Amino acid sequence: MDIDRSRFMLLTASLAAACNQSQVAQPSTPSDDPGSNPALVAAEPSGRATDAGPDETRDGESPPSVWLEIPPGSQDVSAPTSCDESPPQLMTCRNLEAPAGHCESFDDTFRLCNSFPAFLQPRPANAAIECMLEQSGSQGICSWRVWNDCTQVGMQAACIEADTRATCDTVSSSCGGSVETFTCQRALSAIRPRHRASAAACIQEFCETDFCITDLSHR
């Protein structure tokens, strides 16, 4: 016998809905007020939501703890106008090596690695160089992707400068929000102050941070 599956599913759903409705429709008790019926009051679940709403707590109960992670420099509070960017010791790319002696992009990658301290703040520069050194001797150092990857690592190590907020609000607005204010702040805070105006103009034009920061190695 052929069975129309769609009709069968529709019939099953209809029967289930009818059963649910019959379970909900219970005969009324002499008093529907829970306060006047001790049995109903005792059956009330202790964790049931009340008309007071989820944000209000009962007497004797403490509210749940909520942790909010707010990117530094993005909150509306007083922030320091400068950061201590001095690492214990500046790293170098002296030991950066390509696998099997050489690869096509290594010369340019080595040049970028050496230029990090020239356009990045000391702490971001150290982080970017360390990222490069972790790929030393592997095929990873031969990939063009290592440029953006290690530039991002450097930016993530930046101390957010509060005075970049106004500029980055404008950049984010110009890019239609595709570049978040905090992402822009992190990029501008990672580089040396003399490069910030040109980097901000680049980010506003291309709505891209990694390219604009890495491009500073050619200046």
Task: Give a description of the structure.
The protein has helices at 5-24, 38-43, 106-119, 122-134, 145-156, 165-174, 181-190, 196-206, 210-214. The chain has 219 residues and is mostly helical.
Defining traits:
219 residues; single chain; Lipoprotein; mainly alpha; 46% helix
What oligomeric state do the depicted chains represent? single chain
What is the CA-CA span between the terminal residues? 79 Å
Largest sheet: none
Shape: globular
Radius of gyration: 31 Å
Report the strand count.
0
Secondary structure: helix percent: 40-55%
Percent strand equals under 5%
Structural class call reads mainly alpha
> How would you spell out the order of helices and strands?
HHHHHHHHH
Mean pLDDT: 74
Low-confidence stretches: 1-31, 36-81
| Tally of helical runs | 9
What is this structure, in a nutshell?
Among the domains are: 104-156, no CATH class; 162-218, no CATH class. 46% of the residues lie in helices and 0% in strands.
SSE layout and pairing:
Blueprint: H1 5-24, H2 38-43, H3 106-119, H4 122-134, H5 145-156, H6 165-174, H7 181-190, H8 196-206, H9 210-214
Helix pairs in contact: 3-4, 4-5, 6-7, 6-8
